[in-house]
Amino acid sequence: MNEQISVAGIYSPPFKIVVKYFIAAIISFIIFNLMLVIDYKSISGHHFQPKILSINHILTLGFITMIIFGAMFQLVPVVLEVKLFSTILAEIQFWIYTFGVILLTYKFYYFSSNLSFVLPALLLSLAMMIFTINIVISMTKVKKWNITGSYLASALFWLLITALAGYLLSKNLDKPFIKINHLQYLKLHAITAFVGWVSMVVMGVSFKLIPMFTLSHGYKLTLAKWSFVLINIGLLGINWIMHYPDTGFYNLIFGVLIFSGIILYLIQIFIIFKKRIRKKLDIGLKFSAFAFIMMGFSLLLNFSFLFFNYESIKNLTLLYGFTVLVGYVSFLIVGQMYKIVPFLVWYHKYSSKVGLQQVPMLKDMFNEKLAEIQFYLMIAGLVLLVPSLMIEIEILVFISFLLFALSSFIFGYNMITIFRS
Amino acid sequence: MLNKEITKEDVIDSLKSVIDPEIGINIVDLGLIYNISINDDLIEIDMTLTTPGCPMHGSISDWVKRILELSFPEKKIIVNLVWEPVWTPEKMSEEARKQLGI
User: Fold this and answer.
1) Which of B61, B88, B102 shows the shortest C-beta gap to A5?
2) In whole angstroms, what is the distance from residue B79 CA to residue B82 CA?
3) φ, ψ for residue B35 (rounded to 5)?
4) Is the Cβ pair A212, B54 closer than 8 Å?
5) What residues in A contact B50, CB-CB < 8 Å?
6) How many whole angstroms separate alpha carbon A231 and alpha carbon A155?
7) I want to staple B78 with a disulfide (CB 3.0 to 4.6 A). Which of A76, A110, A290, B44 is the partner?
């Protein structure tokens, strides 16, 4: 198989559009960490209240999903070797989405304000639909399909289901109409968002990026395929049975399918890491490796919910939320950003100068020492947060959040350094 | 008097200045260059990448073309990106292995 090279970066979308999403996400991440410090009292008090929903959505929509959008605009074209259908749609989506995130988190924060939940939910759903259309049309042009493509396609489906459940919940908050327990919908919204959308993207992309960064070779992706099947059947099942009463047994079965799928995924990742040629993990991969460990840990925690009654432990939902959203997802995203952002900027600024002048290496584009400090600050914050939340010592919760905030400033500083280099 | 004849070693020397910015190792030591053929007016390179679908796809081979055009302006340069045989770590030089700590 042979191909002639014409121009560089034929598949890459414009730098500007990806960067816009990334910058908005980095700002959201810092705001999220600041909000934790400002509102530490309401967080350490009760585990379910509007302010927590607001802060949670700053992280999940403002940071996590925003990053995924930006990263997918960049990665779908290069991984599937296809051009992005429309950068104009990506631009329109950005503004609708950002406005939606601001309105929704504002409304959650000031719960009693006059703003309806429906408007922000509609804006967010619209933005997600535009995104899906843009990526799906791009995908129809793919010549060589691969496992990453399958994961990303199913992630899009679950994104729309998440948006639909979120929209129904928003209508219900305005004027209750859902006949079955609306907390069921909330659970569905969270599971579909976390497993179907975020994790499916993370998994699919990791099969491409982790071997690329670690130079892993000589492994098969069999487990990845099984993981894909099990998780999707599990999610379909849970979405289906939720509409019927007394489904505890089926819930358990579909739950076990999802757990098994994630375990197979983790084994697959472990195999890839084992087969790596670059033995030394750089800071981006350290963050990622820690994230995978936390993914396994949160899975164990989740699995144990089925067998033990934890009612005696307060704030467990919150603790679980931090383990998953900070320990697993945020660590992974921060780690991958330390790999992807330098590449994007380098590609944009230096690619055309190779051979004509001295160009930097990617690792020289940010302060790796500071990134290491950020890594340990985040771990320290997480380790301190667990007992502090469980035994409800406000001042310790506050200190954990301060450590998080400090680490997010370092992250922001390093990202600015990369963009300016 | 004819120009000094271009040898494979000259081409390899030029190619060594193309460094993968992520790994920090040049493409020759990484074992990405599969074949170099030099004719009267043409230099043709067959090269691969460590992973198909790598974001560097296109750019590394463009750099190769540019550097060779600068080094050997009298020659036409053709760079073919090939995926067979698949790149394996065994294709790396001793030097590259040392740098990666293998």
Assistant:
1) B61
2) 9
3) -155, 140
4) yes
5) 212, 215
6) 11
7) B44
Contacts within 8 Å (CB) and 24+ apart, A300-305:
A302/A259, A303/A259
| Residue A396 touches partner B, C-beta closer than 8 Å | no
Query: A277 in helix, strand or coil?
Result: coil
Mind listing the pLDDT tens digit for each residue in B1-32? 455 788 999 999 999 988 888 888 999 999 99
Which DSSP string corresponds to A114-127?
A: S--SHHHHHHHHHH
- pTM as predicted: 0.89
- Residues 25-54 of chain B with CB under 8 A from chain A are 50-51, 53-54
User: Which chain B residue lies closest to A360 (C-alpha atoms)?
Assistant: B21
- Residues 46-105 of chain A with CB under 8 A from chain B are 74-75, 78-81
